[in-house]
């Protein structure tokens, strides 16, 4: 097994200086997310995400520094020393192991992918050769490294988790199962102390490279499974993109957790409360089983630990054949020969049959340690497009749940509300009809929800500008529609609560 990786020792001033010079060379050549898109063009850039390299190879036939860096670090093509020297501090790269001699040429030992930070930062994510999404060919390009220890780069799951994470200044953050270190890199921007763990020691070494090359502070790197490496320590923020794939065995460390069914995700969720400080968040991606004779929502509610509020969003569902085929392709098993492929496919279906699994869900789980006696647990399906980043939407969700939990109907009718920004109204009905069949309120921001309301709900939302209390608005609506105001006050709080809970209305202080 090839275990060669570069070094970036934060305790060694000379090593730090060499890493700084490498970073400066990458910037000077515009080896950045924007520079890469400009060089390759949108079609070739998109093709890289599909592990198709021919368009990128054609776009890098020139001998400029940027073309050289793309060929070295994204396409894993050796280049002539003179060409490398024009783009990089070659002596530094050889000393620290970013480059090695390959006959008469130089080649990179790792993938280095440009990545744009949330505030326009130029960062780089390190991974094993050929294992960056948008790299040279998926895990089949990983050379002689043991496939069980491969460290993948940035993918859709990584960026999704980074986008939904609450970005508030905190004293401590934990990246559990750090992989290439992208979550630790994000956390380093707003957490005083970052701890990153992984069962794979190779991942910890690569995380150190990602942080150093991107100019971030070093993290406290610890080897081990789940919460074992951190003992009884507690954190303000826990993030995890764990090896959540439900598979027959643990062939690939980066995706297979080694527990039966969805036990790994359940265990992580249930153990998180003990490692969260009061008010802290735990946010992770997960798979869960849809089991015959059981509601999937009930299954997930049972995972939520005592003392925590939860918001669980199912983004996708696949039947067991789709799911097996997806991850068989991920491992390259479709290239292993018909008999081998069929045997491994059978093993996946046997695993699902043993657990009575009919489908697999994928989504986000957010816990907040509230200590509430009556926790708020929201489990929903939302497969529609959302607007990233969603961190502030997550904070807003739990703030609204707190408000609804603490506000009875009498206080609700005495309160003032206003329509949140970016909400539009759609009326649905046959052309020329005097009244619409129904009214839809739609958000253009955040979760981009849509809510169907009756004319009273639409009227209430439309005039809510914080000026009048809810009860006064309902009395005016009752007069307009000829309805008993007492009955309207009795039946409308449920609609108001729905509109608050989904973010269409927000409580405000009385204006004058």
Outline type: globular
Ranges where pLDDT stays below 50 over 5 or more residues in a row are 133-141
Q: What is the strand tally?
A: 18
Q: If you compute it from the alpha carbons, what radius of gyration comes out, rounded to the nearest whole angstrom?
A: 26 Å
The portion of residues assigned to helices is 25-40%
Q: Beta fraction of the residues? A: 15-25%
Mean pLDDT: 93
The rounded distance between the terminal residues' Cα atoms is 72 Å
**Pairing-aware structural class of the strands and helices?**
alpha/beta
* Main sheet attributes: strand count, strand direction, barrel closure: 8 strands, mixed
Number of helices: 19
Structural summary, described in words:
By secondary structure, this protein is α/β, with parallel strands linked by helices. It is about 40% helix and about 25% strand. The chain has 19 helices and 18 strands. The chain has an eight-stranded mixed sheet, sandwiched between helices. A three-stranded antiparallel sheet has the order 17-13-18. It has a three-stranded antiparallel sheet with strand order 14-15-16. Helix 10 (about 265-270) links the parallel strand 8 and strand 9 (about 275-290). The longest helix is centred in the N-terminal third of the chain and has 17 residues, at about 35-50.
Condensed summary:
With about 500 residues, the chain is of the alpha/beta class. The chain has helices at about 15-30, 35-50, 55-60, 65-75, 80-85, 90-95, 155-165, 180-185, 200-215, 265-270, 295-300, 320-330, 340-355, 390-405, 410-415, 455-465, 470-480, 485-490, 495-500; strands at about 100, 105-110, 110-115, 120-125, 170-175, 190-200, 220-225, 235-240, 275-290, 310-320, 355-370, 375-380, 415-420, 425-430, 440-445, 450-455, 465-470, 505-510.
């Amino acid at each position: 097994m090839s275990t060669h990786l570069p070094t970036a020792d934060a305790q060694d001033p000379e090593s730090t200086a060499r890493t700084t010079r490498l970073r400066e060379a990458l910037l000077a050549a515009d080896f950045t997310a924007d520079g890469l898109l400009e060089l390759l063009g949108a079609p070739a850039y998109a093709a890289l995400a599909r592990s198709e390299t021919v368009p990128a190879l054609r776009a890098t036939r020139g001998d400029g520094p940027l073309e050289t860096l793309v060929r070295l670090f994204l396409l894993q093509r050796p280049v002539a020393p003179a060409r490398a020297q024009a783009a990089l501090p070659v002596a530094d790269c050889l000393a620290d192991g970013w480059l090695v001699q390959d006959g008469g040429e130089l080649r990179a030992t790792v993938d280095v992918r440009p990545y744009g930070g949330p505030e326009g930062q130029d960062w780089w994510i390190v991974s094993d050769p050929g294992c960056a999404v948008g790299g040279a060919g998926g895990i089949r390009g990983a050379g002689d490294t043991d496939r069980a220890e491969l460290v993948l780069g940035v993918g859709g799951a990584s960026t999704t988790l980074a986008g939904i994470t609450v970005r508030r200044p905190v004293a401590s953050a934990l990246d559990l199962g750090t992989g290439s270190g992208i979550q630790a890199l994000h956390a380093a921007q707003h957490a005083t102390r970052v701890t990153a763990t992984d069962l794979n020691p190779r991942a910890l070494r690569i995380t150190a490279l990602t942080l150093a090359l991107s100019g971030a502070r070093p993290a406290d790197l610890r080897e081990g499974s789940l919460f074992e490496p951190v003992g009884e320590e507690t954190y303000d923020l826990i993030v995890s993109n764990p090896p959540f794939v439900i598979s027959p065995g643990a062939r690939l460390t980066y995706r297979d957790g080694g527990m039966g069914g969805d036990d790994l995700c359940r265990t992580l969720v249930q153990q998180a409360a003990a490692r969260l400080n009061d008010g802290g968040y735990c946010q992770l991606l997960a798979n869960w089983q849809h089991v015959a004779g059981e509601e999937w929502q009930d299954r997930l509610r049972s995972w939520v630990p005592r003392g925590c509020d939860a918001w669980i969003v199912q983004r996708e569902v696949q039947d067991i054949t789709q799911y097996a085929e997806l991850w068989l392709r991920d491992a390259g098993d479709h290239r292993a020969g018909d008999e081998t492929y069929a045997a491994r496919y059978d093993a996946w279906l046997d695993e699902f049959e043993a657990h009575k699994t009919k489908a697999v869900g994928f989504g986000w789980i957010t816990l907040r340690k509230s200590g509430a006696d009556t926790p708020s647990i929201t489990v929903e399906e939302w497969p529609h497009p959302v607007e990233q980043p969603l961190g502030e939407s997550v904070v807003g969700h739990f703030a609204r749940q707190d408000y609804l939990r603490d506000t009875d109907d009498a206080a609700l009718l005495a309160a003032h509300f206003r329509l949140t920004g970016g909400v539009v109204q759609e009326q649905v009905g046959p052309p020329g009809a005097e009244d619409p069949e129904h009214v839809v309120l739609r958000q253009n921001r955040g979760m981009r929800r849509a809510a169907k309301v009756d004319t009273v709900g639409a009227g209430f939302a439309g005039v809510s500008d914080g000026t009048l209390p809810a009860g006064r608005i309902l009395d005016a609506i009752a007069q307009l529609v000829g309805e008993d105001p007492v009955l309207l006050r009795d039946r409308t709080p449920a609609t108001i609560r729905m509109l608050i809970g989904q973010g269409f209305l927000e409580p405000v202080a009385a204006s004058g």
